[in-house]
Amino acid sequence: MRKRGPGLIGVMAAALLIATACGGSGDTPGGGSGGSGGDRPTIALVSKGFQHQFWQAVRQGAEKAAEEFDVEVTFEGPDSESEVAQQIDMLQAALDRKPDAIGFAALDSQAAAPLMEEAKRRDIPVIAFDSGVDSDVPLTTAATNNRAAAALAAEHMVELIGGKGKVALVVHDQTSVTGVERRDGFIEYIKENAPDVEILPVQYGGGDHLESTNLTRAIIEGNPDIAGIFGANEGSAIGVINAVRELGKAGEIVVIGFDSGKAQIDAIKDGTMAGAITQNPIGIGYETVKAAVKAINGEQLPKTIDTGFYWYDKSNIDDEEIQAVLYE
Amino acid sequence: MRRVSDAPATKETATSASSTSPRSYLAAPHRWLELTPSLVRRQFQLLLAFASLLVIVIFFSVVNPHFSSRSNLTGILESTTVVGILALGTTFVIITGGIELSLGTGMTLTAVLTGIFLVHLGLPLPVGVLCGILSGALIGFINGTTIAFLGIPPFIATLATMLIAEGLALVISGAAPIYFSEVAGFTGIARGTLIPWLPNGVLILFVLTVIAAIVLNKTLLGRYTFAIGSNEEAAKISGVNVRRWKIAVYTLSGAFMGVAGLVLAARLNSAQPALGVGYELQAIAAVVIGGTSLQGGKGSILGTLIGALIVGTVTNGLRIMSVEPEWQTVIIGIVILLAVYTDILRRGRAST
To answer: What integer is the mean pLDDT of B184-201?
Structure first.
């Protein structure tokens, strides 16, 4: 088929380039412009994604702080938590917009290092949140102590399975700080405190619900006597819940999750899941913006801002304190 | 209706010298011998693919007896279902020499739209389900039209649709999952069991396989699919309305994609707007492993099903063996290479 004319192809190609550059989800609630020399300071937040409701809650906290401190906040993230390259592109684009400060949760700390140096060179303060970044550039990290949080999950797991048996972990990835810390925190606790518990090889589902479901089913099929399974983030935990339900083993296997979201909350209420660790995502968003404002004003910041974590199960899920940090 | 006449340089398409409709063969028993070489060749390929699948199943069963439990084998089928349905539909596209990159995000978009229809608009279950599938067909239709009428190469056209669908899914859903808990019977579409022990999702996969095979081998659409794939110019010259049939092919693929989105949403009982990226590659891999050539003109539905099963089986077997996940992806990549290479070798010897 002969070409219809290069002009049309050129236009389509240009449109595609633009579409690719805007790929992934971005949003500007404040509709901010360049931000330099401006009225209100702009803070650009680049998160790990939109895949889980967790990030929407972080965004909520950030917007709350934006209102309180009278700044403009932009919030964006790649399509999924495995899209490292996309996140790097977004960070680059955010830097080029010349914000007054940047908030960043790295999918891959190493990959983001050059851009961190770039931000430092341009004198744009960086506040790390959630996973943080393995770099000296960020002035502080507003995050959950993932190791300790996972250790708390392990503590409950050991208790619920009676101190011995096989336990599996379904983790989202091994390149982000949260993936690594939660996995290690969980395993370390068990190694130190529960030598009779056998840990099966860790499997990674990328946080994808379907993948995690299929993965967990395979784990259970291969180890029918398994005592407990830990899902290290929302997507993974949902996969574990689905698999346990599909095989009709709800109540037989101890399931412990991470974060909240409607699926996990419902599972705890109906007994499929024993309990979970929740972070404080709204707090994370809030503290990140608050720290950014302080940084813009030249104030000193602590090395880390611990935003807190809690264990919740059927017994305390309706407590006010817990309800405040859960999200649907 | 004019028959498709001689298309030069074709090997195993349905458009060889004399008429190849089943009726014409019935009327001419002396020509049945013609069927034999191509039939044996075709069946030989399928037999080889099927044999590979059997070998893999036996291997994993020996290594870990849990692998061959009925529960696990059902699990393998269930894990293959969504990608399998995508692969079935896109086999047609690939046979025409095209490619469909919007399968993954398009599927997610149809899942989201189904969620809107059933949950937000409260349509009755059959209506919402049908609308969901039709929205998938619509996406396919748009792809086909862009490719056939604007002359945009399939890779670019479907890449563009992939991005658009990705964004739209998030926009329409407000970046939040849509839960189907209020919709009675929805999750039964994938997880119910009309036939004891067989999840409905898997049943849908099998039924669609039969339908796709019939369409590909026994209908005009199927014949033209092969014709366009073997030699588009020749098909056009001999009077085939290539544009119209290309649109039909992509629309069909889109409809399958709509069903895949439906089954996915039913299994998870929710529409997850940010998932889907990457599923198109898995589907294409399944098609290719099954013996369909990316260059077009050649392929089979059963091959696609077997290809999808091979990937699903190997993935599951490796997980049951608790092989490190890093090695799992390496092994699957090697499996794909081997499968395609074997097919190239075989075709090299078979060609005249």
So the answer is: 88
